[in-house]
Amino acid sequence: MKINQYQSMRRVATPEEQDQKLKDVAKLYEKQFLREMTKAMRSTVSEDGFIKANQAEKIFREQLDQEYVEKWGDKGGIGLADMIYKQLLDKLGPGMGIKSAPQRPMGPIQLDQKNAGMTAIKTSERSPIKIQVQPGTEVKPQRLTVQYDLQMAALQKDDGNPREVLAPWDGNLLGTQQINPDEYLLEMSHTNGRKSQLVFRGQIDSQLSAQPLKEIQAGQRLGLLSPEAKNLFWTVE
Description:
The chain has two domains: 3-96, no CATH class; 113-236, Glucose Permease (Domain IIA). The chain is 33% helix and 24% strand. It is built from five helices and nine strands. Strands 1, 2, 3, 4, 5, 6, 7, 8 and 9 form a nine-stranded antiparallel beta sheet that branches.
């Protein structure tokens, strides 16, 4: 039998099976960590008394620790397996057919074709778009703040109308707040697990202010930029 014929006969794993493999790998890593932690804790305990533990007792104690670690890991462990699984899923999931690739944002601003090639550079340099990453705490993800510092022409369409502020991803509008006479803050939660805030000068869509928990779609108009607006802040976490 030829090699290519043999390979064609091999059954392709389903996404559910691939997902279970990632979970099993994450559990193995966590159990190995628990074993090393238990071993390190044992090494800190000195053997007192006149009678020292013999080799058989040490082997029995190690086996007992192994059984304890197995049960501990099967009951959920310390949460390390979940963290490892999520990281593996984000990195390998799209390639394994388990998770779809991250959706590119459809907003908050649609640039003209002449400005479509703008890229982010260091915040210390003069740039149309500035990005700042704020380290989060142990339980919160990083906060990414994007500042659109654009010229007046970039804030208007070619026909002269104000540029629209668009929803970056699908989700829900959590609330709106008017922080200045013509400046607004919008808070959103997205279906990809992200939360984001928009701060801009202009006006928001009238339907949004009436329904604070309104469902939004990627690319949906949220408001209009003021002709006097010089920037827009978008924070993602």
